[in-house]
Amino acid sequence: MIVSELQLALPEIFIAAMACVVLIADLFVSDERRGLTHSLALLVLAFAGIITLRLMMPVGETVTAFSETFVRDRFGDILKLFAYLVLIGVFVYAKHFLRMAGLYKGEFYSLSLFALLGVMIMISASSLLTVYLGLELLALSSYALVALNRDSARGAEAAMKYFILGSLASGILLFGMSLIYGATGSLALSEIAGALGQAASGDALLAFGLVFLVVGIAFKLGAVPFHMWLPDVYHGAPVAVTLLIASLPKIGYLALAIRLLADGMGPMHEDWQAMLAVLAALSLVLGNVVAIAQSNIKRMLAYSTISHVGFILLGLLAASPAGYAAATFYTLVYALMSAGAFAMIILLSANGIEAENLDDFKGLNARSPWFALMMLMLMFSLAGIPVFVGFFAKWQVIAAAIDAGFTGLAILAVVTAVIGAFYYLRVVKLMYFDEPENTTPVTAPFDFQTVLSINGLAMLGLGLFSGGLISLCISAFS
Amino acid sequence: MPIIEIIFYLFGGVLTLSALSVITSRNPVYSVLFLVLCFFSAACIWLLLEAEFLAITLVLVYVGAVMVLFLFVVMMLDINLTKLKAGFARYLPVGILVALAMAAQLFILVWSRGLDSQVLVHAADEGSNTRLLGEVLFTEYLYPFEIAGFILLVAIVAAIMLTHRRRPQTKYQDPSQQVRIRREDRVRLVRVESEGEDS
Amino acid sequence: MDIKTILLLIPLLPLIGSAIAGLLRHPIGRSGAHTVTILAVASSFGLSAWVAWQVFMTDWEVLNYTVYKWAVVDGIELEVGFLIDSLTALMMVVVTFVSFMVHVYTIGYMKDDPGYQRFFAYINLFTFAMLMLVMANNFLQLFFGWEAVGLVSYLLIGFWFKKESAVRANLKAFLVNRGGDFGLLLGVAAVLMYMGSLDYAEVFAAAPTVAGQTMTVFGGVEWSVMTFICICLFIGAMGKSAQVPLHVWLPDSMEGPTPISALIHAATMVTAGIFMVARLSPMYELSTTALSFILIIGAITALFMGLIGIVQNDIKRVVAYSTLSQLGYMTVALGASAYSVAIFHLMTHAFFKALLFLAAGSVIIAMHHKQDMREMGGLGRIMPITAVTAWVGSLALIGFPFFSGFFSKDIIIESVKQIDRTGASFAVFAVYAGVVVTALYTFRMLYLTFHGKPRADEEMLSHAHESPWVVTLPLVLLAIPSLLVGYFTVEPLLFGGALSDAIYIDPANDPVAAVGSHFHGPAAFALHGFVTPVFWLAMLGVGLSTWIYLFQPSVAENVKRRFHWLWTVLDRKYGFDEFYQNIVTGGGLKLAGFLSRRGDRMIIDGWIVHGSARLVGAVAARVRGVQTGFLYHYAFAMIIGLVALVFAFVLLKG
After folding, report:
1. C96 and which of A247, C45, C383, C617 could share a cystine (Cβ 3.0–4.6 Å)?
2. What DSSP string runs through C502-517?
3. Would you say A158 and A146 are in contact if contact means Cβ atoms under 8 Å apart?
4. Of A10-24, C417-431, C620-634, where does mean pLDDT reach its minimum?
């Protein structure tokens, strides 16, 4: 091994080392001075961002290292940068809630950084083995985070469900990987693709393995019918953790899907396109329809996640660079939207009691017009109303699906998006047209307010100037 | 080599039966013990494939450490089996149906590929299995190996975070405090006025 | 700073000012609001003036570039771009200057209004939108600016939204303009369809090839494509520039505060239609039919709207009808292919009409927001500055020689005489007759307001006084160009070819050039003006008005009684409102009522909307039940999903 290989993995190595530093440093920090851990974690992310930017891969260039278990390309670098960005937002949002709820512990930061490491490993994986290990690192950190509040029975139950179902899914994924390995004789994704190109089509073993892979991915993303864990976990976890697991891991799971399906199983795209089409259709319909029946906003957002996963799958199943770019764009935008939406729940939570009922949003305009406006932008963007960035994300994805010949699915997506707009607009209606039940003014620390305002305005800003981000995503696949 | 096949089918059969028993036996202690048997049979099959290192690791780690811990837990917790199995009968038919479907699918899959003995490749002809594994682990699979290390670290952190806590109402000893005790902390000398005779 | 930064700053400064004044109401306060917005618009004016200097005084290459590419749809580029030539530069200066004056004036006019900051935010936003409209280099941005100024106009007409008449008026303006915008949108769509681009330069280049084509509109009637496009676009202009029959909203728009009547409904927004036709002159030159249409519409507006002005008693409405009539003159000029003259009149009119409105506003301040001229009179002694500036504006309006309006109006009349196309003779009659009418109502207004015996009650008069300097300063500053701008710019703009890089006229049929051949300098032209029939017609109007309203007020009553039918027709404004109210709106309402009952409530609401909502709700409740919360249910669902997928994709295929 040579030094240059280590240099390629510098962002990962840095995050890994600093996660340990944060873990240990926090032991010497008293509870009152936990802000130090917080600042250190933010610094780490900022530095990681600088390192990644300095080493950013040029368009179209791909380098592998560590005997083809690690890959560095522009796609990965873009996703990593966004992962840092999202995590910075999550840390700022979460701090406010954790302090209120008495959960302000150093483990939150170290485990989050380990989760980030898992995401990064998945993003840069070029072997079935690294994909799986990254996934497990992320999953294990998430399980522990969901149980962050040990005094909450709901949290413990959610963590338990998440853990068991997640293990089941990991098992399924691993089984699929072993079948693929058995059929192709390699763990490296590029070699698998090469072997598939030569293999006789219709090999049942490969198809079998592929189904297991797709099921594993579908579980992680939360696609119907492998979505059942998602509402319970979102609901049961403390909202600061929900915020994390609703945003950051999505970026990793997108990479998981693209690495496995596009990079590894690319030659079998006709098979997995059809599977994803089924999953996407089910997710779109079920997510949007059931979200309407929810009165708890965390559950509502969970079902909305399921429907957005349907859209991400819609982009993936186009199996073209444009489709992957659209799915990437959608995922990045979704991570931002969803972080902002959960941050609004934190904003309205008082004394550590989560404002998780839709009724808590009643009359927000009267209590805080500015943040009602931010929530309006987030909801409009989630609903995909034009000018807001969510619209362009949907548009790109649907256009990619139509180009790939999935016109029926595209129509379904539009119809379900219209159904979905109902529950987002209901939140807007509650904020603007109902009388507040609780008239205490909305307060939050300055950094929280700033980041949330930027997050909300970004929905409009990125929408008006969506060209830049779109072309960035397209450059990742050219 | 029929003797090898006989041994294979023997351990294979034991493995399958004991796995079945893990989920059907009424007493959880039996379940754990059957699981031990499972691992043991699997280890034997690996030996048959000349994967000595893995076989021994399986016995040492799973049978020696993990399962003993399991046994402790199962014996210490009073698990009410009847409650756990409440829905069992109700869901059994559907469960069996799905299991059969799954098995049928696997069967068809294997059938379509055909059973050829070439699938069983003899692994290490040159040198020791353990040494080869070690070499590969620290060269070709260095990166995954390090990641696995981090997974273990996270597991430790998570376990400590979830279990370690200081409840204010529980009483516990602090040996360092006990050692550092001084006389003044324990004994207080009180001057007592002698009672006057005139009172 | 390079030129592109400056050009970008010109529209953006007012936008930023508007955002600050509108969003940060508490932190900056009332004085902060007007400081910020006035600074923004003043800098914008300064930069525009600099740009205009560069354009007219130096060797300027027409600047046509893309500022921001917003999206590409099917190869059609949607972008923000600037086209900076003489026409744009002229419009930019006019818009920012009048806007600047109105901003200053507003400090005085809106002093006690609770919506002070909102008002400044709106007018700054308007300046931004209008600048985007005039600086556009493509139809999309034109449409954006068009709708944006319409929006602000809507908001400002209904500025006093607690007043019912204001709300009615802004609704009316909104609805009538939608009618026009429909035409515009059709026109833009047709442009896109036949020329394949929205960029002005590309469209103009493609226009001659399209000119010969025909298209089939309903019922197999063959239309020239160019005529169709031009008339559709002009329908849009009719809405915005208030031409008959889409003029009905403009008089009602006077419900808004006077500063915006000056800015939006006299000087700038209503001229957007005129500007657009001039900007698109290379297309209009290709369709004589469309030009004849424009000519006739303009002539009707110029004459008949002026007539209504004679019978109005509300001071602002008189000025409003005069605006309609003057817009008619501009339209006539467009129809006569004299685009540069239309733009010239647009400019002079912007100054003197803004002046007249602001003067009227000054009077209204003094009269404590009473607008009826029958209760005024004799105010000239009390408020001399207002009276003098109003006189300047009025003389410019009637086209008294040497005043700016004289040059523009006289050349319009001369140009119309030069051309030979359908409707030209009617147009000549209309513009001549319009001169008498203009003089009549203008002087009627002057006399009723500033001269004669005071008719207001004692208490009102004792409180009336000259307005503060923030009101009179803009009056004076506007009076100067009203007096002088025509004299100094007529030659370079019309005959010196300053606008030739923006406006195309078919050389075979160029009325301006024909007029120019008799033009020997502005002084000679103005002196000659004293002996033309136009001047004597104007004097006839002035004389009539002086006789009736200054010396023999009973004549007015007599005429009114004698020709009562005529008075009724004019007072009812030819029944346009009744026509729209009863036929268009009433018929529409009946149809809508039917559709609402049968179609909407029964089929769409009852079956489709509520039905589907109920269906979705029912399905949601049912599916929600699957989420039992039991772990083994979830695991089971996953396994079933897995088995189903394997079955579907492995076994069925393999």
Report:
1. C45
2. T----GGG-HHHHHHT
3. yes
4. C620-634
pLDDT for the residue A391: 93
The residue of chain C nearest to residue A213, with distances taken between CA atoms, is C642
- Spatial contact of A214 and A276, defined as CB atoms under 8 Å apart: yes
Q: What is the pLDDT of residues B27-67, one digit of tens each?
A: 888 888 999 999 999 999 988 887 888 899 999 998 888 88
- Give A169 or C222, the one with higher predicted confidence: A169
C65 neighbors C100 (Cβ within 8 angstroms): no
| Contacting residues of C for A168, CB less than 8 Å apart | 635, 638
Question: Which parts of chain A sit beneath pLDDT 50?
Answer: none
pTM metric for this prediction = 0.70
Contact yes or no for A202 and C649 at CB 8 A: no
Task: Work out the burial of residue A452: count CB atoms within 10 Å of its CB; fewer than 13 is exposed, 13-18 middle, 19 or more buried.
Answer: buried
Q: In this complex, how many residue pairs, one in chain A and one in chain C, have their CB atoms less than 8 Å apart?
A: 86
Q: What's the token pair of residue B152? A: 């273990």
Report the alpha-carbon distance of residue C332 to residue C342 in Å, rounded. Answer: 8
Query: For B109, which of A129, A133, A208 is closest by C-beta distance?
Result: A208
pLDDT in tens, A26-64: 989 888 889 999 999 999 999 999 999 998 888 888 999
Alpha-carbon A292 to chain mean position: 22
Q: What was the ipTM of the complex prediction?
A: 0.92
β-pair type (C76-84, C63-73): antiparallel
- C626 pLDDT higher than 70: no
Mutate one of B161, B164, B167 to test the A interface: name it (highest A CB count within 10 A): B161
Q: How far is C173 from chain A (nearest CA, A)?
A: 26
How far is the C-alpha of A332 from the C-alpha of C652, rounded, in Å?
37
Tell me if residue B191 falls in helix, strand or coil: coil
How far, in Å, CA of C300 to CA of A49, rounded?
A: 69
Taking contacts as CB-CB distances below 8 angstroms, the residues of chain B near C654 are 112
Length of chain B: 199
* φ and ψ at residue A127, rounded to 5 degrees: -145, 150
Q: What angle do CA C604, C608, C610 make, to 5 degrees?
A: 95
Please give the Cα distance from C416 to C409 (Å, whole number): 11
Q: Which residues pair with C214 in a beta bridge?
A: C224
Q: Could you tell me the CA-to-CA distances from A233 to A48, A242, C625 in Å, in that order?
A: 29, 8, 17
**CA angle in degrees (0–180, nearest 5) for B140-B145-B149:** 165
Q: Which residue of A has its CA nearest to B106?
A: A208
Bridge partners of C136, per DSSP, are: C82
Query: Of A92-96, A360-364, B182-186, C318-322, where does mean pLDDT reach its minimum?
Result: B182-186
Contact A121 B147 (CB under 8 A): yes
| Distance separating alpha carbons of residues C206 and C99, to the nearest angstrom | 36
**pLDDT digits over B114-146, tens only?**
655 454 555 545 667 788 888 888 888 999 999
Q: Identify the CA nearest to C240 among candidates C270, C213, C263.
A: C270
Nearest to residue B74, comparing CAs of B42, B41, B36? Answer: B36
Pairing of strands A70-73, A62-65: antiparallel
Cross-strand pairs, C87: none
How high is the pLDDT of residue B116?
54
**C-alpha distances out from residue B1 to B13, B44, B119, C338, Å:** 19, 17, 16, 108
At C599, phi and psi to the nearest 5?
-80, -50
What DSSP character marks residue C530? Answer: T
| Beta carbons within 8 Å of C543's beta carbon, 6+ residues apart | none
Q: How far is A130 from chain B (nearest CA, A)?
A: 6
pLDDT at residue C301, rounded to an integer:
92
Instruction: Find, in chain C, the residue whose alpha carbon is nearest to that of A228.
Output: C634
Task: Report the C-alpha gap between A85 and A72 in whole angstroms.
Answer: 19
A231 CB neighbours in chain C (<8 A) are 627
Q: What is the largest CA-CA distance in chain B?
A: 116
